[in-house]
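Per reviewer request, we include the raw input and output of the structure prediction for the construct analysed in the revised manuscript.
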Amino acid sequence: MTPEAGTQEVPLVERYTLSTEARKLLELSRVEVVELNHTTIGTEHLLLACLKDPEIAQLLTDQLKLNTAQIEEATKSIVSRNQDGTTPAEIGFTPRIGFVLSKADSQRRKEKAKEITTLHLLIGLVQEGNGIAASVLESLGLNYEKLIDHYNEDMLRAHKEQLSRFFADRRIPTAHKYYFLSEISDLADRAREIQANIEPKTSRPQQNALL
């Protein structure tokens, strides 16, 4: 469906609340498009931009044990520089980037965060699943489940540290601390309930290969 006469479609990026760093990352994706003489920003350009972001690069190399040079090489082996034509003045986004932003925003809302961060963009990039970026990362051992598990562990660790500082702070009234303890107890009870309702995984019997 095309926009009605007299209306103007809201630009893709303006539909979401992005952090300053996330906006810079999308602008860096635009630079990758120009360098490769392409016409639109796809997941491959966003991935190449991610490799130049200090926070994401550190996550990929130090924590997820990936080689950023290898990621770049694998990506550029699929999308070489276009020798013909020119990059248009207005560089748009592929539909896959729209999906990436949608998934990034879903992660933001789950966390009740105010803005989409660069890490949210990385999560959306991997969760998209079918683009060049997701294919390259999966071929090198990083899929959505592995990334989100690691991300959640980091978030939990950060929350634990924040709570430790909160309870150690003598300026905070004891009544406030008791309130938070009751909230944490409720969450722990809910976690135990969920775990209790998960059926233990049973190993399936191996079938005879001759049957």
